[in-house]
Amino acid sequence: MDVAFPGKGSPKMAEGTKGAGERVEAARARRKRTGFFVLFGIGMALGMAVGVWLVGKGLDSVVNEATDWPPALALGLLAAWIGAVLGGGIFIARQTDEFARYRDQRAVAAAGSVFFLGYPAWFLLWKSGMAPEPMHGVLWLVFWFVMMTVAVASWLRANRR
Amino acid sequence: MRNRLKVLRAKRDWNQAVLAGRVGVSRQAINAIETGKYDPSLPLAFKLSRLFGIRIEEIFDDGCGVSGEREPENG
After folding, report:
1. FRET partner for A129 with CA separation of 20 to 30 A, picked from A59, A157, B17, B31?
2. How many whole angstroms separate alpha carbon B11 and alpha carbon B15?
3. Which residues in chain A are contacts of B32 at CB distance < 8 A?
4. What integer pLDDT is reported at residue A10 of this predicted model?
5. Which of A49, A84, A93, A39 is nearest to A70 (CA)?
């Protein structure tokens, strides 16, 4: 029997058993989930470290007092962020196929347009007195919201049979 | 882009996951290709062509004939 082309006479897979293709995909999904959980765990640990440091200082020290953070904390967070984005991105990209990369790139492009279109628009409106000064925190949050919304919508659409 | 992937897959009693595993992509990718939501890359198209033992043009149809001009939809 030709393994590559079992033909019409081959028995269908029994319900509940996984074929080679499904096992490969399940293993890939497991590795991707593990990568996300590791990154999430790192983020949680760093968030808790910042939270512990913020006790008693209030949210004001995050929003307004840019020089209040210890340099070691800021540099540590920066290194962790760059490492997570680059390292995690490379790892996740190796677990995804071309279709998932296409969906992810669309999400990132949509989110990137928040800055590419949104920041100049807000800046010009601000300069003409029609809007308050651009807030980088708001732009950052909108960037994440757009990226997650497009990513989730693409995922739901792709999993609809 | 129109394609015969679903028909070719069905002739071999493969589900989408089996075909996906054989060409190294996810089931969602196969589903998206079959439903016309995604056009595969050239390397993936070649993998599919070699897997089924037929030419790429026998799997995918961009609606343009040999002349390159768009053909009318069959009624």
Report:
1. A59
2. 10
3. 99, 158
4. 41
5. A49
pLDDT at B57 over 70: yes
Identify the burial level of A35 via C-beta atoms within 10 angstroms of its C-beta, where 0-12 means exposed, 13-18 middle and 19 or more buried.
Answer: middle
> B72 is written with which tokens?
């009318």
Hey, what amino acid is at B58? E
pLDDT along chain A (161 residues), means of 10: 41 51 77 84 82 70 64 85 87 86 89 91 95 90 90 82 59
ipTM for the assembly: 0.78
Q: Using a CB-CB distance cutoff of 8 angstroms, which residues of chain B are in contact with residue A23? A: 21
Contacting residues of A for B41, CB less than 8 Å apart: 98
A33/B contact by beta carbon, under 8 A: no
Does pTM surpass 0.80?
A: no
* A113 closest CA partner among A157, A147, A155, A82: A147
